[in-house]
Amino acid sequence: MRMFRSVGAKLFILFFVSTFVSVLLVGLISYGKSQSIIEDKIKTVSQQTVKEATEKVALMLKQFEDMSLQFSTSRELQQQLDILFDASADPADLMNAKMTVQDTLNQIARTNTYIKSISLFNTGDENQTISSVSTGLTAIDRKAEWYTKAIGMKGTALWLPMIENGYTGLAKGNLFALTRVVNKFVIVFEIDAAMLTQTLESIHFSASSRMFLSDGQGTMLLSSRPEDVGKRFSVADESDDQLIVSELLKKTSWTLTGVAPLSELVAETKVIRNLTYIMCAIAAVVAIAIGYLILLYIGKPLLKIRNMLNEGAKGNLNARVKINRKDEIGEVADSFDRMMQQMNGLIEQTRTSAHKVLNTSSTLLHVSQNTATSSGEISTATGEIAEGSAQLASEADQVFHIVDSMNADLSNVVNATDEINVSSLDVKSASSEGKRFMEDVVQMTLDSESSIDLLVKRVTKLEDSTGEMQKVFGLMNKITKDSKILSLNAGIEAARSGQQSGGFKVIAKEMGLLSDQTHDSLNTVNLMTETIQDEISQTVKALKHALPLLQNQIQSVRTANAIFNKVFEKSEAFTLHVEQIKETVVRLESKQRHLNTSIGNVSSFSQQASATSEQVSALSTGQLQSSQEVVGIAKELESLSLSLQETLSGFSSRDKI
């Protein structure tokens, strides 16, 4: 069954069937049309033949009618008949008239050999008769139907059907008769039916055709086949393949009918049918030969092209048809060979591009992982910076409160020195109180010194951390530049690959955008870090500048403590040094105000550094997420590259050994 699905087999079957059926249809249609035309022509000719035969018979019967009219048109014969049938006539005249009429009847009878007898019957006297074959009395049945009908027709000719031995009994054989009334007598012509039988037998439509003469009731009076005489004929009883033509005889109630089988009439058309069968056989042989040529020159090349297409579908790109023809099949084969050659080149190019994409995706994955690691480290570092900045702000706030308290103490010292001038009596008590107060001040100053030293160390450490951040940002800038270069290279490779790397173009574009966004984010973070570093540097400078003042203050406090210790010993020297102490305290108050301002600035800078570090931490977190997304894209790109290589491995682009 598979061979019937072939185009060549279908073309062969189509050509064979169309040719055979066309020839067969043309032959059968020609046969049917010719048969129909011949049938129509035969019907027309047969009808004309029957009509001519009817006219011939009518002409034959008319001569008998004309003979019968002589008895009414001949005056001499009328006179002789009047004498013959006159009972009062002279016997000699009667005998003479009888002989004359007898001779006339004999003469008329001799004019036609088919006339068997001519008889005259007196309508008024049944004993007065005369005949051409008998001189005696001729007795007839005057009550017969034909006689009564003849009398009733009053001179019109009446043809009587065939009957054995006639109507008068004067002749033998199958006879028919003509009768009519002439004056006072009835004339009867009895005619041999052989005359009409010969006419019927002379008409032949075919070998088994028949002609017959029937009366008004369909009873066959005469027939070319004697066994049919007396039978009734009905058109409904005949089969459809019978040709029936009939014609009514004039002046009679008889009908001449011809019946013939159509199969015999159109038998010659079978030559056309046989010729049609012969032509169908010849057409079948020619169609088979041409069909074989179609199979050879169309089906076989198409089968070869189909096999090569199946080879190409299996991945064999080296399949070639190699049909050297100049027609459409040759063009299809050449187009197939060129298509397979171009597909071979495209597969090789795609395989190379897939390998490059795989290498690029591996590099991108490695760089993205490094970027993600660096982003995590940056995020951790910025978190530590934010915590340090928060601690620095808290300690600066504490120092601020301490310095503010010192300002209040210095104000008290100024008031105390003023009170020293008012009352020296209270010096001892004030000195004692001053001693205790100065001990507290010394302790607080020492605490302030420790706090400032700690603040200086933390700020220094923060400055070092910002330096490390600068190094990390430098590394991230380098990674961003490498990513940018990588995206540019990927875009160049994508442009080289053409339409086969539409997805790779999108990835390269997204990598470029991500690299640009990362570069901008790093620039912003770097700028903020530089600002923080600058502010930290200024804070360090301020603290370094405040440290000597604080040390001087400590020294002054220690000096004041020593003085208060010697108050009891040197009360007189107290007054001399009061003004000096007052001036020192005023300068200390001024420096304390500067210190208070510097510590407030340190607190503000620490808060700003904390906020900036939080922003850097958020940006680092975003950078980390972006890096992780890039890692995911790189892994997906690597997976797609491997899948593409696996797909391309199904194509064979090298010659098979």
From TrEMBL:
InterPro entries: HAMP_dom, MCPsignal_dom
GO CC field: plasma membrane
Domain named HAMP: residues: 296-348
Keyword Iron: no
Location relative to the cell: Cell membrane
Entry keyword Membrane: yes
Protein keywords: Cell membrane, Membrane, Transducer, Transmembrane, Transmembrane helix
Gene3D superfamilies per UniProt: 6.10.340.10, Methyl-accepting chemotaxis protein
GO biological process, one term: signal transduction
Membrane-crossing residue ranges in chain numbering: 275-298
Pfam families assigned to the protein according to its UniProt record, in alphabetical order: HAMP (PF00672), MCPsignal (PF00015)
Domain Methyl-accepting transducer as annotated: residue spans: 367-617
PROSITE patterns: CHEMOTAXIS_TRANSDUC_2, HAMP
UniProt similarity note: Belongs to the methyl-accepting chemotaxis (MCP) protein family.
Descriptive protein name: Methyl-accepting chemotaxis protein
Organism of provenance: Cohnella herbarum
